Amino acid sequence: MLMLAQGLGQGGRPDAIMADSMFQRAQRLDPAFPKIAYHRGLAHLIANQPAIAVPLLETAMSQDPADANAGRALLLAYGRTGQDEKARALVEGLRQRGVLPEGVEFTPSSRPETAASRASGG
């Protein structure tokens, strides 16, 4: 459902919100459901709700600091919410853990998509 929502762009917002409600239900059924915070955060990013995504993605990163996908999603969420200092610190932390290659920088003038693209090597 998240992939469909992402593919639909703005029109996929309701699908992303629905995906989040399904993830919440899965979490109630199985509190140990893997990567639930990441998937919920991603759903809120797709729904263009980065402020809601940030704490979920921060949780995902605290659960698995080496998760490059969660790191890139959190970098995007920080960029969209104007949390430049947190974005810089995240890039540095990911680089120190070997998740990002050397030379990746975050600059406030970068569009968040560009920063995330650089973070993913794309």
Explain this structure.
This protein has seven helices and no strands. It has 122 residues and is mainly α.
Blueprint (SSEs and pairs):
Elements: H1 2-8, H2 13-29, H3 36-46, H4 50-63, H5 68-80, H6 84-96, H7 112-119
Sheet with most strands: none
The assigned CATH architecture is: Alpha Horseshoe
Q: Tell me the count of domains.
A: 1
- Under CATH, the homologous superfamily reads Tetratricopeptide repeat domain
State the CATH topology.
Serine Threonine Protein Phosphatase 5, Tetratricopeptide repeat
Task: Give the gist of this structure.
With 122 residues, this protein is an all-alpha fold.
Features:
122 residues; disordered C terminus
